[in-house]
Design a protein that fits this description.
The complex is a heterodimer of chains A (269) and B (253). With 269 residues, chain A is mainly α. In chain A, 76% of the residues lie in helices and 0% in strands. The longest helix of chain A has 29 residues. Chain B folds into two domains: 178 residues, 3-Layer(aba) Sandwich (Rossmann fold); 65 residues, no CATH class. Chain B has eight helices and ten strands. In chain B, the strands form two sheets. In chain B, strands 6-7-8-3-9-10 form a six-stranded mixed β-sheet, with helices on both faces. In chain B, helix 3 packs across helix 4 and helix 3 runs parallel beside helix 5. The chains are: A mainly alpha (269), B alpha/beta (253).
């Protein structure tokens, strides 16, 4: 693999993903509507029920809708990762995956290109979400929007490779609902996205421990601190390690000699 | 147009030997071996379920099995997969174009994956689309095209990087008779004039021309391999459809 070829390939994959993003407006709108409902409806109802306290990185009392913004940003990335990886399993999409996989570059590199492209799209979605939130008066400190970018790159890659591993293991994906129920919702609810972890600990120590082990929690915290211009080193380490592990598993699962994805759908011809 | 590029003398464009593959306990290919030389049009004939798609997946390294060897020109597909894949152009059975993108965007994506420079890619795109009578349509979205035109785009795409070996897996399925004939003729021309080695999988006997080579695959095994006349004679039949019937009889699961 030479550097020029590698760069052209990455640019090609990114360009394709950007073009698809532009052409699939429904997908973009759907990706925004979901977190906005949480933000504008759920949070409005909940702010009365949930007492908000001062915990880092916040330095003052914050309304509930400010608290859940980082969690919703991470949720956008989780959904996006799931959608782009799971769609690989659908036949038509598998087609375009084939085009990628028969290219004359190492398989791991092609998968990384695909993940970077998916992350790139998720970042556009998160910033669009933050823009709309700002229009409703929910804003972050100015530089937070800049610090957010590296956090989103690393979280997007982590969640994207997690989804890629999942796509290689799961057989039937006619219903996205199954993934929603058994993966996305537990990951989302068993995290610090909707409530601070100390609050969770008050009600159940076991649930608290599960939340702490959930890499999604650390993605949310990394994003939350970044939005306030601060680095949560612990979260950064956990997210990075999780990313490396998931990426390794994804490369292993998509290794031609294993061919898990293709062997599952044993072709008829 | 550039000069024809065929495999160097003595080296086949594709050489498969001792290839076996199982899906779990179910054997899909058993000790498959054959070669395709530069400029030859080889028809891979077999009923549905014979193992054609599995064979194509192995040759394109979508997956890999432990048994057997595949060489593309001088390169071992397992050890030098990059250089080997760079010499292959492929048209899969199921469509692989992005429906929401236009012809140009689809072809340029492919060119990027093959590391081609933009100016060269544009030139090749023009060339290949012109040969297929599609030059005017490069701005058209795939979604708006019919099946025949989509197939032509896929063939043009497979040729962008000037492969020495072109693989097509039942490329004419679902197309009308005149479109099928055009595509069959076009690919024969590519073999004859550009020296490309072609492996064309089908179960449609009327796609075979008199001077083609034929492999008959049945239940994962090669039942016959040679030029059309040899295969017919060896089967003791008087036509390829007779030979096909003789060689693919029995042992059905």
């Amino acid at each position: 693999m030479n550097a020029v070829h590698a760069w052209r390939c990455l640019r090609g994959v990114l360009t394709r993903e950007a073009l698809r993003f532009v052409h699939q407006r429904e997908r973009f709108v759907a990706a925004l509507v979901r977190p906005l409902i949480w933000l504008l409806v759920f949070a409005a109802g909940f702010r009365a029920a949930l007492g908000v306290s001062i915990i880092p990185p916040y330095e003052t009392y914050i309304p509930y809708e400010v608290y859940i913004v980082p969690g919703l940003a991470a949720m956008i990335q989780l959904f996006n990762g799931m959608q782009s990886s799971l769609s690989m399993v659908y036949d038509r999409e598998m087609g375009s995956m084939r085009t990628l996989l028969v290219s004359p570059l190492p398989r791991w590199y092609l998968l990384v290109c695909k993940l970077l492209a998916g992350t790139f799209v998720s970042i556009l979605q998160v910033y669009a979400f933050l823009l709309i939130a700002a229009l409703f008066g929910i804003t972050m400190p100015g530089l937070g929007y800049v610090w957010l970018l590296p956090a989103l790159i690393i979280c997007g890659l982590m969640l994207g490779s997690f989804a890629m591993v999942l796509s290689s293991v799961i057989k039937q994906l006619e219903n996205f609902a199954g993934i929603m129920n058994f993966v996305i919702f537990p990951m989302f609810f068993l995290s610090s996205a909707l409530y601070p972890l100390w609050k969770m600990r008050e009600s159940s120590d076991l649930l608290y421990r599960i939340c702490v082990l959930n890499p999604f929690t650390h993605a949310v915290e990394l994003i939350r601190f970044a939005l306030y211009g601060r680095l949560n080193a612990g979260a950064a380490v956990v997210v990075t390690v999780a990313m490396v592990v998931f990426l390794g598993l994804a490369v292993y699962a998509y290794n031609p000699a294993r061919g898990m994805v293709y062997r599952k759908g044993a072709p008829g011809g | 147009m550039t000069q024809p590029k065929s495999a160097t003398a003595g080296t086949a464009a594709l050489e498969v030997s001792g290839l076996s593959f199982n899906y779990g306990a179910k054997p899909a290919l058993a000790d498959v071996g054959f070669t395709v030389g530069g400029g030859r049009f080889k028809v891979l004939l077999g009923p549905n379920g014979a193992g054609k798609t599995t064979l194509f997946s192995l040759i394109t390294r979508l997956f890999d099995g432990p048994v057997g060897e595949i060489r593309v020109g001088d390169d071992d597909l397992r050890k030098q997969s990059g250089p080997a894949l760079a010499k292959i152009g492929v048209v899969f059975q199921s469509p692989t174009l992005d429906l929401d993108l236009n012809v140009r965007q689809n072809l340029m994506y492919h060119a990027a994956l093959h590391g081609m420079e933009k100016a060269l890619a544009l030139e090749r795109m023009d060339e290949e689309l012109t040969r297929l009578g599609m030059a005017e349509r490069s701005g058209e979205k795939i979604r708006q095209m019919n099946g025949g035109h989509r197939r032509r785009v896929e063939i043009a795409r497979a040729l962008m990087h000037r492969p020495a070996l072109l693989l097509l897996d039942e490329p004419t399925v679902g197309l009308d008779v005149p479109t099928r004939r055009d595509i069959v003729n076009h690919v024969h021309t590519l073999a004859r004039e550009d020296g490309i080695a072609v492996l064309w999988a089908t179960h449609l006997i009327d796609e075979i021309s008199d001077d083609d080579d034929v492999i008959i695959l049945h239940q994962g095994r090669v039942r016959a391999d040679g030029n059309l006349a040899q295969v017919i004679r060896a089967a003791g039949a008087d036509s390829i459809s007779g030979a096909f019937d003789v060689l693919t009889q029995g042992q059905s699961e």
